[in-house]
Amino acid sequence: MNPFPTLSHGNGLLRGVLNGWSTSGVATFQAGLPLTFSYSNSANVYGVSNDRASFAPGCKSSNIGTPGSVNSKLNSYFKTSCFVTPAIIGDDGLGTDFGNTGAGILRGPDQRNFDLSLIKRTRLGQHWESANVEFRAEAFNAFNTTQFANPNTGFGTAGFGSITETLVAPRIMQLALKVNF
């Protein structure tokens, strides 16, 4: 909490209104989580059905990201055309190898959030040394910034490459009054 400057002389009512204010806040900044591209592969010759997708020819982890803001790429967070089913290696023409994409090859959307408070403490008379009334106005996600969830990274599933959810509630404001003694 950072207290505001106080008025030490002058009208008592004016001092009561202007003194005792402070602010508080929490800022959260975090990079996006690493994304791994999965593929439900019942044709894997090694018997592993929860596999990874493979890169299409000419694609690699450095060129799968889609440029622009998260808002502009909600339906195509990454280049879905850069992913294919793993290579066929079985003699039957159906069995596949493991996918060749690595773990965490792209980052999901970052997070930026601010929670802010404005607090006013007013002493309750001279006889009660530490008693006061505290008024608080709080804003969670104060700037109403949309925080997007990770895109769907399940190759071959509906919505592959799309972001369909948010993580943090929109701005929430609340007022509180408390007596401390």
Helix and strand topology:
Elements (H helix, E strand, L loop, with lengths): L1 E2 L8 H7 L2 E10 L3 E2 L2 E3 L9 E3 L1 E2 L27 E2 L21 E2 L3 E13 L8 E9 L13 E2 L16 E9 L1
Question: What keyword list fits this structure?
Answer:
single chain; 181 residues; mainly beta; three-stranded mixed sheet; 1 helix; 4% helix; rod-shaped
Structural features, described:
By secondary structure, this protein is mostly beta strands. The protein has one domain. The chain has one helix at 12-18; strands spanning 2-3, 21-30, 34-35, 38-40, 50-52, 54-55, 83-84, 106-107, 111-123, 132-140, 154-155, 172-180. The strands form four sheets. It has a five-stranded antiparallel sheet with strand order 1-2-9-10-12, with helices on one face. A hairpin with an 8-residue loop joins strand 9 (111-123) and strand 10 (132-140).
Tally the helices: what do you get? 1
User: How does the major sheet shape up?
Assistant: 5 strands, antiparallel
Total strands: the figure is 12
Helix content: under 10%
Approximately how much beta-strand content do the residues carry?
A: 25-35%
Instruction: Note the run of SSEs as H and E.
Output: EHEEEEEEEEEEE
